[in-house]
Amino acid sequence: MVVIVVAVLVIAQGDSDESTTPAPSETTAGSTTQEAEQEPQGNSERADLVSFRLDDRSAAGLTDIWIAWTIKNSSSEKSDYSWDWEAVDADGTRLENGTQLETDVQPGQTARGEYPTTLKSATGIELNITSFNRTAGY
After folding, report:
1. Contact in structure between 83 and 99 (CB atoms under 8 Å)
2. Is residue 71 part of a domain?
3. What is the rounded radius of gyration, in angstroms, for the C-alpha atoms of the chain?
4. How far apart are CA 8 and CA 18, in angstroms?
5. pLDDT tens, 56-75?
6. Which of 6, 49, 101, 115 has the most CB atoms around it within 10 Å of its CB?
7. Does any domain span residue 120?
8. Could you report the per-residue pLDDT of 35-50, keeping only the tens digit for each?
9. pTM above 0.85, yes or no
10. Three-class SS state of 48
């Protein structure tokens, strides 16, 4: 039995957005996605999270739902990003939550990532960002 433990230490600097907001979304051609509406963000570090969505890759009766994101570094320095998220159903029940990281994103660079979920369906699921932090990368 192999146990993999990942420990992450993130030191938050500067402002952070502690409110729960729907995740931004972006449509990707060729894939079925469940998207959340984007709230206006102004010119904050939170606006660097361009897209955060569910990507339903289920086929042949097998459930395969991922989260996918796009970060665009609008700052003038290399940055590390961390954010907490939750997936909630129409009744407001939290079905899953997690923390995602994107590190060493250069100024002006776009970074994309994805991660599998244990969700059984993407239908009617809303993604919320519960906290978001950008720190200087070293």
Report:
1. yes
2. yes
3. 15
4. 19
5. 999 999 999 999 999 999 99
6. 49
7. yes
8. 443 433 445 889 999 9
9. no
10. helix
